[in-house]
Structure formats: C-alpha cells, structure tokens
Design a protein that fits this description.
The protein has five domains: 46 residues; 113 residues, Sandwich (Immunoglobulin-like); 115 residues, Sandwich (Immunoglobulin-like), CATH 2.60.40.10; 140 residues, Immunoglobulin-like; 160 residues, Immunoglobulin-like (Sandwich), CATH 2.60.40.1170. By secondary structure, the protein is mainly β. A five-stranded mixed beta sheet has the order 2-9-8-4-6, with no helix packed on it. It starts with a helix and ends in an 18-residue tail after the last strand. The chain is built from two helices and 40 strands. β38 and β39 form a beta hairpin.
C-alpha cells in the first residue's frame, strides 16, 4: 500500500461518517435519546476520531522512514586492558532516496574511552553528510579499554539522517567486547618476613606487554597504618606514595624499590595495595593492581610505654604526663650500646615543665636521649635483661582556639630503642624497636544557668509580684547556655529539679534542634541534645534554651530568697576521645543577680 492509497482510504472513511451524521439529524422520531446520551455519543465519536488520526499519523511517519538503511559494527571479540583497538562502523543506504545530513554517534560505556587528544572520553561523533541511494560509508575509530579484566562492554553506533528537512531518523547497532589482561604486568619481590621496627625494602616491577607505548605512567601505594616510609629508588612525585614513571614504550619495563618499616605494635599481617595508571587524553586511568603482603615478626628488642600507669591514657589540659619506658633484650645475644630516644610533638606540651634527670635534651628538636654516656647500664644489655627510664611533662592549661577547625588535639611521643648488635638470624643493619604514643586530649563542655524576671530579649512575658509574696505565683525565665572547647560533644543531657512550690508552665524555646522537656515523674526539666560542635560558645554564640517556671513561696521562706531551680547537671561524651564529660551549674534563687532591672531586696519573700 502506498502513502497515497492510505490517504484516499482515510478521506473515504471521513465522508461516510459525515453522511451518517446528516442522516441521523434528519430522522424525526418520538423516541429521541436524552441529551446526556447524545453528549456521550458525541464525546465517544471525538475520541474515536482522535485515535484513528494518531494511528494514521504513526503509519504515515513509519511509512516515511526509508527501508534499507542499515548500520553494522565490527570489532575484536576480546581486547587487552589499556591497548588501543579499532571499531569499524559501516552505513549502507539501500533505500530509493538520498540520505542527507548524516552523522555517526558512538556511545561508549564506562570502561572504554576514545583515543586522541581533546577527545570526549565517553562519546564519539562524526559527520557523514550526504549518502546516495546504494551508497556505503565506512568509518574506523580507535578506542581504549580501561575496565577491569572480565568485564563485557557494549558499544552502540547510531546513524542519524534526514530524508527531507525536518524529518530525522535513526538506525543503530552495537557490538560487545570482553576486556582481558592488562597491558601492564605488575609483580612484587619482597622479603619473606619483615621485622617490626627495622627498615626493609621491596621491589615493584612493571612491564608493558603490548606493541603500543603508554604515556604518563604512574604508580601509587596505599600504606596501612603503622608503615613508615623511608626512601625509594625514584623520588616520590607527591607525598611519599605517588611516583610519575614517565612514558613506557612498547615492551619496556622498570622497577621501583620502596624502603620503610613497620612499628608501633603493628598487626602481624600487612598488605600494601599498589596501583599503576596511564594517561589517555587528559585523564588518568588505572590499568593494573597488585599488593605487597607481609608477615611481620616482632622485634627482638621489647619496648613498652605507659603514661600515668596506662597504655591508653586520655589527657586533659593542665595534666602532667608521667612516661615510663621499659625495654627488654629478647634477642638471645647481648646488645651493645643500646640507646633510647623520645621525640615530643604537640602544641599543647609545656616544654618548660619537662623533667628527665637521666637524659640529654635537644631543645630544638624536643628529643630526649638515653645512652651509655648518661646511663652506664645501656653499654651492654645481656639476653633477658630489662630496664626502665622515666620522664614527665605537663600540658598547657588551656587550648589555643582561633578557628572552628582547632579541634581534636593530641600529644605525641615517638619512643625508639636501637643497638648496632644484630642477631645472626636477622638480615638487618641494626636491632630496632619503636612505639608511637598519641595521647588524645579531651575537650571540655560547660553549662551556665541564669534566671530573669524581666526578660525582653527572650520575648517571654513573666507575670507576678516582686518582691515575691507568700501564696502568690511569680513567673521567671531560666536560660541554659552550653559551650564546648576543642572537640565535638555528643549525647548531651542537661537536668535540673524543680523545688517545692515551683511548677513548669510549658513555655519554652531554644536556638538548637531540640527544646527542654518536663519529666513529671522525676519533677525535673530535661534537655537532650545529640551533638554540640567543637568551639560552640567559644568562637560562636552558645547553644541556648529558655523555659518559663512559676514559683509560689511558702511561709517558711519569708525573709529569704526562694530557690526556683535545683542544681543543673550535664553529662555528655567526648566524640574524639570517647571519654565521659560532666559539668554543672549552681541552683537559682529569686536573688536574680544577672537581672539588672531587679534589686537584690526585691528577691526576698514577703507576706
């Protein structure tokens, strides 16, 4: 059926429908249908015509798309990660008309990128222009797979064209490629065992296994806690774990040697993940991963450090830290010229308070040293022999808080012990042990409790007489103000009891996310806060709540100040140290010392 035949059929159908409608209007009968039925029939007829028109439009549009336009995609079934490969797209026009303004779009999945400088890594667009009837156009594109081995990636090619201005159509097809081994082979050569505290080295070998060169190759190591970087055969380009290796020609190879040590009571098994990448276009893509896995042997030189008799002491500003350093020779041989050192780092240390009678001290590096010169017992330490040295230092009395990020303070002492004597069963240049003691310093939290009769700033109006009278209620507003120093404070609870003759009015507000509530069972006002940010109330305004109470004095309080709120008690948790915190504020009375509009005499109860 041609398009012209379809149009003729639609016109004939519309004429028949029109004649039937005229015939129905001319017919005169006494049983004419009611108006609602007529309206329903008219609406149904309109909907039917609409459906027919839309169907006709779809058929016209479908019939307008030329038959015989096809797209074929050709590529390798399996590709190597990081090695460029080619994708060919063939467009065939077997239609009876010329296709205009043709273009090819290659949609790339994550894991395949377009090659070439300045290319969009996720999409390729190409202009074909005119393609005559019977014509064929073939385009070839270079892509690079960067997805991990085992991924199957679908590449979709879309050919977009016009048959006449404003009538645009698409034809598409796709191909799937599987990503195989990486272009770069990584391998690690390492010692069977690493000795805690002693420097060891491991080699990372890399080789380009393909016939294609790679640009801007880099290697990155992810060090675990406890690893201390010492050196590498190629200087790091960034920090101590990133190396620019430059271009890597086809089949070229290289080796990077990394030296370091594990310390501070490290776990017995450790892994250092390694990642090698190359740059394609303007972006860096990972091409391979491996890891250096170690079994850590304990040092034959035992070293234990305690602070105020504890291994994990939590300090407070103003504390004095008493360090005890115990060493023991577990090597099986005598250790000659044993030396110990302690390096102190932390802005909270008060170095003027340092006390270490048996050590030499370098004030520039803040290093204490014990050796055979100041401690003869270290000249030769026989197998199984132990000893102990001591020093103390105080923390400053307050934090230095200038910014909101001034938080989470620690005082670090790096303790080391070493001897040039090495047991025969170790391949090391020295016998060494180290402990890093990071003493966390707890933050502080405070609560202030205030009462007012005239309290315009809170916008709460209090009623009742001043001075307070026996048997008559007088209202007051109570302010609770919370402040924190150095650390975030969590799980805060503030409580205060209402004395005899005082009741909760229910008027309450705060500048936080929660308001105080009245616990009728305990007859207490309770305020629960999930978190108080570090330095709130020190560098910013405090967290504040205001609630109203009404106090009615009795005969026994005549001539005295009435207590209107009991002692305020605060409990919380320091988020950095995990330690429990407490604070308190004194009970409040009708003396109202902070209310400038009330004299002290006006707070005394009268009859």
């Amino acid at each position: 059926m041609t398009l012209r035949d379809l149009e003729k059929r639609i016109e004939a159908f519309q004429k028949r429908q029109s004649k039937r409608a005229v015939s129905r209007r001319r017919k005169k009968t006494n049983d004419a249908p009611p108006n609602w039925l007529k309206k329903t029939l008219l609406i149904g007829t309109g909907i039917g015509f609409g459906i027919i028109a839309l169907g006709a439009l779809f058929i016209v549009m479908y019939m307008s798309a030329p038959r015989g336009v096809s797209v074929d995609v050709y590529t390798e079934r399996s590709v190597t990660r990081g090695v460029p490969f080619e994708v060919s797209v063939s467009v065939t026009n077997n239609a009876s008309m010329t296709l205009q303004n043709g273009s090819i779009t290659l949609n790339l999945p994550d894991g395949i990128v377009a090659a070439g400088p300045g290319a969009d890594p996720s999409i390729v667009t190409d202009t074909i222009g005119e393609l005559k009837s019977g014509g064929l156009n073939k385009k070839t594109y270079t892509l690079i797979p960067v997805a991990e081995q085992g991924n199957e990636m679908k590449i979709t090619a879309v050919f977009s064209y016009e048959t006449k201005p404003g009538s645009r159509f698409d034809a598409k097809n796709d191909a799937t490629v599987a990503v195989g081994d990486s272009v770069i082979a990584l391998s690690v050569k390492k010692p069977d065992q690493a000795l805690e505290g002693s420097t060891f080295s491991f080699d990372v070998a890399y080789v380009n296994t393909s016939d294609s060169g790679l640009k801007d190759v880099s290697l990155e190591a992810d060090y675990p806690d406890g690893f201390r970087f010492d050196s590498s055969s190629i200087p790091p380009s960034s920090f101590t774990n990133y190396w620019d290796l430059g271009d890597l020609p086809a089949h070229a190879s290289g080796t990077l040697t990394i030296s370091g040590r594990f310390g501070n009571g490290s776990q017995p098994d450790f892994s250092i993940p390694l990642k090698i990448s190359a740059k394609f276009g303007e972006k860096e893509y990972p091409l391979g991963t491996t890891s250096a896995d170690f079994t850590l042997a304990p040092s034959p030189l035992g070293l234990e450090v305690g602070i105020n008799g504890q291994e994990n002491y939590v300090a407070h500003v103003g504390d004095t830290l008493e360090y005890s350093v115990r060493y023991q020779n577990n090597s099986g041989i005598a250790l000659a010229n044993l030396a110990l050192h302690a390096v102190l780092v932390g802005e909270l240390f008060d170095f003027s308070s340092l006390s270490a009678p048996d050590a030499s001290y370098n004030a520039t590096t803040h290093t204490l040293t014990w050796n055979s010169a100041n401690n003869p017992s270290l000249r030769l330490v026989d197998p199984g022999i132990s000893g102990e040295v001591h020093f103390s230092i105080s923390l400053k009395n307050q934090f230095k808080l200038n910014r909101m990020n001034d938080r989470n303070y620690s005082a670090r002492a790096t303790i080391g012990a070493e001897s040039p004597s090495v047991p025969y069963y170790l391949s090391a240049s020295r016998t060494y042990a180290e402990r890093i003691m990071d003493t966390k310093v707890s933050g502080a939290v405070s609560v202030a409790s205030r009462a007012y009769y005239r309290d315009a700033l809170s916008q709460i109006a209090n009623a009742g007489s001043l001075p307070p009278k026996v048997g008559q209620g007088t209202q007051y507003t109570v302010h609770w103000l919370l402040s924190s120093s150095a650390n975030d404070i969590n799980n805060i609870e503030v409580r205060a009891a209402l004395p005899e003759g005082v009741k909760w009015t229910g008027v309450v507000k705060s500048n936080g996310d929660s308001d105080p509530q009245f616990d009728s069972a305990a007859n207490e006002v309770v305020w629960n806060i999930s978190k108080l940010s570090a330095n709130r109330g020190v560098l910013t305004s405090p967290l504040e709540a205001v609630f109203q109470i009404e106090a009615t004095p009795g005969e026994a309080q005549v001539g005295q100040y009435q207590t209107i709120l009991g002692k305020t008690r605060l409990s919380a948790t320091d988020s950095f140290t995990g330690s429990a915190l407490q604070a308190s504020a004194n009970p409040l009375t009708t003396a109202l010392p902070l209310d400038d509009t009330v004299s002290s005499a006006q707070g005394i109860v009268v009859k």
